[in-house]
Amino acid sequence: MDKRPYLLLANDDGYDALGLSFLIEVLREDYDLLVVAPDGPRSGFSTAFTVMSPIAMRSVREEEGLSVYACSGTPADCVKVALNRYTRRRPDLVVSGVNHGDNSSVNAHYSGTMGVAFEASLQGIPAIAFSICDYSPKANFEPLLPYVKDMVSRVLREGMPPLTCLNVNFPLRSTFEGVKVCRMGNCRWEKEIVDCPSPRHDAEFYWMAGNLTNLEPEAEDTDRWALDHGYIAITPTTLDNTDYRYREILLNSW
Known about the structure:
The protein has helices at residues 18-27, 75-86, 107-110, 112-122, 145-158, 223-228, 244-253, and strands at 6-10, 32-38, 57-63, 66-71, 93-100, 127-132, 164-170, 178-181, 187-190, 193-196, 205-208, 211-214, 231-238. It is an alpha/beta fold. The chain has a single domain (6-183, 218-253), classed as 3-Layer(aba) Sandwich (Stationary-phase Survival Protein Sure Homolog, Chain: A), CATH 3.40.1210. Helix 2 (75-86) runs parallel beside helix 4. The chain is globular. The termini are far apart.
């Protein structure tokens, strides 16, 4: 009998986040799952990894075809430790999320959810990062179910180019207009710093906040346009940061 596909799941909201629990329940019927997730929220960690302290791992759930561990490190740490110490064999796919919050456009650069997918891609493993534009810890994930199942099975069947992952964002809706394959929108965070009352006289304190401004609101091929108009946005994302157009200019002028 053929082995069932083996998936590694992780996130940045923590091992007990509702979005991760949703993924486990949706996928465990068809796949064997190893889940390694932070022991608490790690939003905004991107691909940061731990070097100044040891990483603690704790088993929190063990069932047939399912192992869940809590990790004291970052989302990228979860992938690194899992692949080096906890996988039975090389995972067929890494799935990250479902994140409580929007990871479209420039948010992908900061996202710990995307950090999981980036680390998997660097290790040569296909990866999908799922996010929903709902920051509530009690977000409703049920409308995502058929799309998550379909996208996971498609990637397992068709594969993915090297150094590439999928950034999938769902708008905050109970039904969707459809699915759009997009490019990353050109957006910018503005007014990011908010004053915080200072408990000390020798330092100043601030909160990170801000507004995400779409710099090309009329462009209909972006992830931001898709989400704003009720579509699920799929953005193929590559880790090759080379600007090939500018490279050609430099080659001709240097």
